Amino acid sequence: MARCENLKEGDKVFVWYSGSCRLDFVEKITPKGFIKVSGSLFTKDGLERGGSGWYHTSIEPATEEKIAEYNKEKFIRATIKQMRETPKISYEQALKISE
Question: CA-to-CA distance for 7 and 5, rounded, in angstroms?
């Protein structure tokens, strides 16, 4: 059985591209069985139809556990970005961050 065979319109999916990932949803299932996400068509195996020879895009169903993990990682990346943009912190603040 293909990994995306049971997807329906509105289901959440992870879109993988160039080593990155984003959370999206299924817009439509075409009459031929292709899965439309963000304007692109994917097969039941999760592979982008057509696509580029250099960049491979794929989808996978998003479970609640994987969504929670994704949101935690996204929060960590945003926090690190915010820390990089902070011009100056005190020694006490640095200790708390280190903990």
Answer: 6
Rounded to whole angstroms, how far apart are CA atoms 28 and 40? 10
Sign of torsion over alpha carbons 5, 10, 13, 18: positive
Average confidence (pLDDT) over 79-97: 84
Q: Are 7 and 61 in contact (CB under 8 A)?
A: yes
- The b-or-e profile of 80-96 (16+ CB within 10 A means b, else e) is eeeeeeeeeeeeeeeee
Structure token pair of residue 72: 């935690």
**The pLDDT of residue 84 is above 80:** yes
The closest alpha carbon to 46, from 99, 86, 75, 6, belongs to: 6
Phi/psi for 32 (5° steps) reads -85, 0
